[in-house]
Write a structure and sequence with these properties.
The radius of gyration of chain A is 24 Å and the shape is globular. In chain A, a hairpin with a 6-residue loop joins strand 1 and strand 2. By secondary structure, chain A is of the alpha+beta class. Chain A folds into two domains: about 300 residues, Zn peptidases (Aminopeptidase, 3-Layer(aba) Sandwich), CATH 3.40.630; about 140 residues, Alpha-Beta Plaits (2-Layer Sandwich). At the A-B interface, strand 9, strand 10, helix 7, helix 8 and helix 10 of A face strand 9, strand 10, helix 7, helix 8 and helix 10 of B.
Chain lengths: ~475, ~475
C-alpha cells in the first residue's frame, strides 16, 4: 500500500467503526473514576485496568504502575518493522488522564453522570457523561486512531510511549516523582496531549500557552465549639466573619490581586501575539451569554482573551461554615473553611505565590484565629514552541482533516504535566485537543460532540501517518 | 394550712418528686421538635400535645392551637376559689417554647441529642440533650412547680395563662398574629418567662435588658451554571469572591458595623447602669477560656459585658458555595449563600437595619450578580422595668431560694416575645431563668445542671406562693 492508500484505509475503518468506538468509550465512562474522593479509588484502578487491556489488544506492552495514589498506565509500541520503514521513526509520548472531576451537584444532571447517553444537539449527537471529553473521550479518540492503524495495516507507523495518569484532577501529586524515576523509559522525541479545546466546532486549534495553578484549602478555627450568637455575639471572634474579611480583600477595586509579589514575573502580552489574538475576533458577549451573563469581570482595561490566557487569577472554589440548612440558626460557628486557587501565567513562580498568600493571610489574621493552609499542588504556567517539524505535522494533519489551518491559541486552564514533561524529560508538547468551550467540563452535563470525537480520532490517525512519513 | 406550711409542703413534694420530674422532662426531650426543619413538623406537634396533656392533668384548661406553622399551646388556670382567697388574685401569663435548635453537627455530641442522659459533672448530675435547658427544661421546671402546688394544696394559688409556642428558634413567624387575634384571652397582669441565665451556679438573676434580632439569608447568583475555573477564571464573575467581598466589608478596622444608619438610636449605657455592671466583676478571661480563646473581639474600647448586653452586632451564622468536599475541584460556582444576623439593642429599629443592609449590599453588588434577601423575622431590643410589686415578688422568691439577691442583668440573646407582650398585650415581663453560660445551648452537648433545674422548680413554687399572698 502507498502512504496515501494506508491513511485512506485507516480513515475508512474509523468511519465504519463508530458504533464500536462509542461502545468502547461508554465502557470507560461508566467507571466513576473520581480521583478526589477516596471511596472511588477502586474505580480509578478499574479505569486504569481498562486502558491497560485496550492498548495491549493493539500491540502495546502495557503496565499498571502503582503509586502512593491512583495507578499510572504506561505502554510502549516499538514502531513498525525497522527493515521496512528505515532505521528510526519518530517517537511520541502520549499523555492523558483517566480520572474525572466529582460529579456534584448531582441534581443538576439531566441523566446520571456515569450512565453515558447519546443526546441529539445542534451539532448532531453528543455524549453526555462526566469525563465525556475531559479526558476520557480524548484518550479513547487516540486509542481508536491507533486501533484503526493496527487493524488496517498490522502495525502503528511510529514509536509510541503511553503515560496515562489518574490524578490529573487533583493536581497530579505522584506523577512528577514517577516521571523522574523513569526518565529512560519515558524518553521520546515529542509529547502529545489531547486535553484542550478547538477554536470552534469547525476550526481546529493547537494550544501553545497554558496557565498554571496553585490550589489551597484555608481552615480557620476560632472558639473551641459552636456558640450561641446571642450569648457571645459582639465580644468574641466569629470565624466566618474573619474568613470573609480576609478573603474579601483578595482583590482591589480594579480587579488586581492584592497578594504581595503576585504579579512578579508576569509579562505583558507581546504586541505581535496580542495582535494575533485580537484578529481571532473572540466574541466575549457570546461567551458571557452562554453562561447567563451580560457583563464581564476581572482586571479593568484588559480584553477577555488576555484575561483568560495571559493574566493570573484568584478564584474561591468553595466556602463553608456554620449553619447551612433551611431557615435560621443563631450560631457562631467554631470553624470556617474555603478552597482557593490561583491560575498562574508563564513567569510566575508557584512558591512565590504561596509565600505571598501566607503573608497576605498572616497580615489579616485577627487575634484568636488559628489558620492552616492545606496545599493541593502547584505548577507554573507554560508556553510551548510554535514551530518545528512535529508542530508542522500536527498543523498539517488538522488542516487536512478540517479544511482549514488550526488556530494557535492560549488556554486558561492548567495542564501541569506540560511543565514537567519539559523540565523532567526535556520534551516539548503538542496540545491538540478537540473539546469545545460549551462542553461543561467540571460542571453538570459535561458533553463531547460526536462530531468532535470523530474529528479527534481522524486527526490523530492523520498525525500518526504524517509522523510515520517524517523519517 | 398557713401560707408558710403550704410552701413548705410544696417544696417537700418537689424534693421528694425528683425522679418523677426527671422522667417527665426526659419524655419531652426525646421528642426531636426542631422547628427549623420541615421533616420535624410532626415532632413539634407531638411536643405540643405532650404539654397539652401535662398541664391538663393539673387543672389547666389546655388547647392545641393550629397556626400556619407549628401549633401553639394555650392553657388557663382560673385560680383558687375566690371565696377563700379574696375577690381577685394576680394573673400571670407564662410564656415558653417547646421547639429546639437543629442538633448538627451530630458528630460532636457525646450522646445522641434526643436521647437525654444524666451525666455527672462538677456541679453534680446534669442533663445532656438538645433542649435540656433551652427551653424544655425551663418549661418543665415551671410545670413541676405548678404540679407540686396542685398535688400539695389541691389548687394553684394564682390565675395562670399559658402561652407555649413552637417557633421560637425560627423567629416566631406566627406568634404575633396569634397574640393580636387573642388579646382578650391572653389578658393578664404580668408575663413570666424562664429562658435566660443565672449569674452563676450559686447566684440567681433576673434579666432586664434583651437584644433584638434581624436574621437574613443572602443568595448571590452569577453564572447560570458551575464553570471550570481555567476556562473562565479571571474574565467572569465569581459568586463566592463577590459574596466574601461584600460580607468581608461589614466591619471597619475598629469593629464597628459599616451598614448605613446601623447605630441610629443606639444609646450609651447610663453611667449608673455601667457602674452596676462594672461592679459585677465579670471575668472576661474566664468566659474566653471556656471557649478556647484568650483574646476578645468586637468593638474597640468597650467592655465585654457592654458588648454583650448593650451593643449591636453583625454575625455571619453560615456560609456556603462551590466545592466543599475532600481535595481540590477547580470550579467557579454558580451561586454563593450566607446567613447573617444582627443582634439589636433598645433604640434600634429592625426595619431601619434591614433597609441599611439592603443599601449596603446594593452599593457593593458587582455587575452581573443577582442578590436576593430572605428575611427570617426581626424584633427590636427590649428593656423591662426593674421595679414594681411583681418584680419585688420575684426578687424575694429568688432571694429565699438561693440565700442571696438576684443580679439584675442584661442578656445578649433575643426573646422577641418580650417586645410583643408589651406592644400587643401591654404586659411587662419578668425574665427569671436558670441556665448557665456554659450550658452550650444551640451547640452540641447542650446541658442543664440538675441543681439548676431543682432551683428553678423551687423558685417558681416560691414565686407562685408570694404572688398568691399579694392579694
Amino acid at each position: 500500500m502507498t502512504a496515501e492508500d494506508r491513511i485512506t484505509e485507516v480513515l475508512r475503518r474509523l468511519d465504519t467503526g463508530q458504533d464500536d468506538a462509542r461502545a468502547r468509550l461508554f465502557e470507560l465512562l461508566r467507571i466513576p473514576s473520581i480521583s478526589a474522593q477516596p471511596a472511588h479509588a477502586p474505580d480509578c484502578a478499574a479505569a486504569a485496568r481498562w486502558l491497560v487491556h485496550e492498548f495491549a489488544a493493539i500491540g502495546f506492552e502495557t503496565a499498571l504502575r502503582e503509586t502512593p495514589g491512583h495507578p499510572i498506565v504506561t505502554g510502549y509500541y516499538p514502531g513498525p518493522d525497522p527493515a521496512t520503514t528505515g532505521a528510526t521513526v519518530p517517537h511520541v509520548l502520549f499523555y492523558g488522564h483517566y480520572d474525572v472531576q466529582p460529579a456534584d451537584p448531582l441534581e443538576l444532571w439531566t441523566s446520571p453522570p456515569f450512565e453515558p447517553q447519546m443526546v441529539e444537539g445542534p451539532h448532531g449527537p453528543r455524549i453526555v457523561a462526566r469525563g465525556a471529553v475531559d479526558d476520557k473521550g480524548e484518550v479513547v479518540a487516540f486509542l481508536c486512531a491507533c486501533r484503526a492503524w493496527y487493524l488496517a495495516t498490522g502495525s502503528l507507523p511510529i514509536r509510541i510511549t503511553l503515560l496515562i495518569e489518574g490524578e490529573e484532577e487533583i493536581g497530579g501529586p505522584n506523577l512528577d516523582h514517577f516521571m523522574a524515576e523513569h526518565r529512560a523509559e519515558l524518553k521520546a522525541d515529542i509529547a502529545l496531549i489531547s486535553d484542550t479545546n478547538m477554536w470552534d466546532i469547525a476550526t481546529p486549534a493547537i494550544t501553545t500557552q497554558l496557565r498554571g495553578m496553585v490550589y489551597v484549602q484555608i481552615d480557620l478555627v476560632g472558639p473551641s465549639r459552636d456558640l450561641h450568637s446571642g450569648s457571645y455575639g459582639g465580644a468574641v471572634l466569629n470565624p466566618i466573619n474573619a474568613l470573609t474579611r480576609i478573603l474579601g480583600d483578595l482583590h482591589d477595586a480594579e480587579g488586581h490581586v492584592k497578594i504581595p509579589g503576585f504579579y512578579d514575573g508576569v509579562a505583558e502580552v507581546p504586541p505581535a501575539q496580542a495582535a494575533q489574538w485580537e484578529a481571532l475576533g473572540f466574541d466575549e458577549a457570546a461567551m458571557l451569554a452562554g453562561i447567563g451573563l451580560s457583563v464581564g469581570a476581572g482586571e479593568l482595561g484588559r480584553s477577555a482573551l488576555e484575561k483568560l490566557w495571559a493574566r493570573p487569577t484568584a478564584d474561591l472554589n468553595g466556602i463553608w461554615g456554620g449553619y447551612t440548612g433551611i431557615g435560621a440558626k443563631t450560631v457562631i460557628a467554631s470553624e470556617a473553611h474555603a478552597k482557593l486557587s490561583f491560575r498562574l501565567v508563564p513567569g510566575q513562580n508557584p512558591e512565590t505565590v504561596l509565600a505571598g498568600l501566607r503573608e497576605f493571610i498572616t497580615d489579616r489574621t485577627p487575634p484568636g484565629a488559628r489558620i492552616t493552609l492545606q496545599e493541593f499542588g502547584g505548577n507554573p504556567g507554560v508556553a510551548v514552541p510554535t514551530e518545528g517539524p512535529f508542530m508542522s505535522a500536527a498543523i498539517a494533519a488538522l488542516t487536512d482533516e478540517f479544511g482549514k489551518a488550526p488556530v494557535l491559541m492560549g488556554c486558561g486552564g492548567s495542564i501541569p504535566v506540560v511543565g514537567s514533561l519539559k523540565s523532567l524529560l526535556g520534551l516539548d508538547t503538542i496540545l491538540m485537543g478537540f473539546g469545545l468551550e460549551d462542553d461543561q467540563i467540571h460542571s453538570p452535563n459535561e458533553k463531547f460532540e460526536w462530531r468532535c470525537f470523530e474529528g479527534a480520532a481522524r486527526s490523530h490517525a492523520r498525525l500518526l501517518g504524517k509522523l510515520g512519513a517524517m523519517t
